[in-house]
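Hallway conversation turned thread

IA: we were arguing at lunch whether anyone had actually written out Circularly permuted ATP-grasp type 2 domain-containing protein end to end. Turns out nobody had. So, for the record, here is the sequence (484 residues) and right after it the structure tokens. Reply here if something looks off.
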Amino acid sequence: MNKTETPQKTPSPTIFDEMFSPEKTPRPAYEVFQRWMDKVDISILHHKQAEAEALFKRLGITFSLYGAEQSGERQIPFDIIPRIFSRSEWRILSNGSCQRIRAINAFLYDIYHGREIIRAGIIPESQIMGNSLYRKELENVTPPGGVYVHIAGVDIVRVSPHEFYVLEDNLRTPSGASYMLENRSMMMRLFPEVFDLMNIAPVDHYPQTLLHTLQELLRSQHGNQSPCSVLLTPGVYNSAYFEHAFLAEQMGVELVEGQDLFVSNDKVYMRTTQGSQQVDIIYRRIDDDFLDPKYFRKDSMIGVAGLLDAYRAGNILLANALGTGVADDKSTYTFVPKMIDFYLGEKPLLKNVETYCLSNHEDLQYVLDHISELVVKEVGGSGGYGMLVGPASSKKEIEDYRKRILADPANFIAQPTLSLSTCPTFVNSGIAPRHVDLRPFVLSGTGVSMIPGGLTRVALKEGSLVVNSSQGGGTKDTWILEEE
């Protein structure tokens, strides 16, 4: 690909380049795209990149940054060079991700009921019962179909042609699906001729597939043929409000805030101009703590008082279910391979990243001795906040973080810095390799499936391994080829 204004740096031989083989020939999934790129002048790509940025700005596709130095709304950076997977590569990711979510759903049902995995000595009781995200209020409460995680965002990295690792499982209120959809819409607008050349799996059915998944699950339990569904948002000041509004519109459901709902006789109702209407399904984007001020945080102004009563009475489907946070915890993540074996009797199809739990004395000592080589994260953290990338941190940053660890070791896990794969990315100098990860979306209802696409996040800074948009990363469209 000869599209740079200045010589591009090629990835280190130890870093897997997803587009090119070591012999600099395009890998099979990229062959058609490469032939098309060979015919495109660099000036056209600059024009297309500028057009994409202008369109995203006009559409108001933003996210919020938190923190005194960087707070405010930002436009999410978008890269016009897609990431492409063959059908066989995608099959590995899909089968492995669906397997994880089946096991996690079984785990969540178990810990709120018989706790067989604890009795078997596979997971320490303290890991569950001592977890702040475990909800005693939900013991022996069964959600419709026994499904807790209806929407999961599984963060995956690649280090070789056939070697993928799961970094974490996002199981509470996973975000990013709207960017997956908008990225695809943008690419089809900018490069329609490429979609004519390549057989790319669509993703635009995601909102309706999600709605259908929830409705079918409810129908299988209660036979309700016309369930009323809503999307519950914290409001316009939430960092993901754009996504909430976008998905509600695409799903064809009402976007509501806590004040729009009320509970009467253990049933949830929505206030409308025609009167009250019973609600059967809530796709909620509010954390457990703020969801019901009657039982959880009393100061919550964004929840619905009595929602837990309706949930325990079986009169509402919440997606995702209350209490999923205990499985979202980064220290619980380390047990997922054992969950797969225990509940499914299968070997994990996707690997976990080696993880050190700092509540363990030996792990703590190792991490303190090697902190400059590791990535350290808070067990309940998200969005790239509160983490330390040792190799990219100053001595002061490392020492300050060491003090945080020593103050509360159980609040942290650590992982080695993997050699994340790279994809060609359009930067100021032309096209250059940048590190990427992937968040595909797994839907669980009467069955488990994964949308053939996902949110590819890219570290736009040269050499950076941090892909979060809140930390300077951007996004790409993710193409899955329908045929080999």
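OS: looked through it. The chain has a mean pLDDT of 90.
IA: good, adding that to the notes. Residues 87-111 form the longest helix (25 residues).
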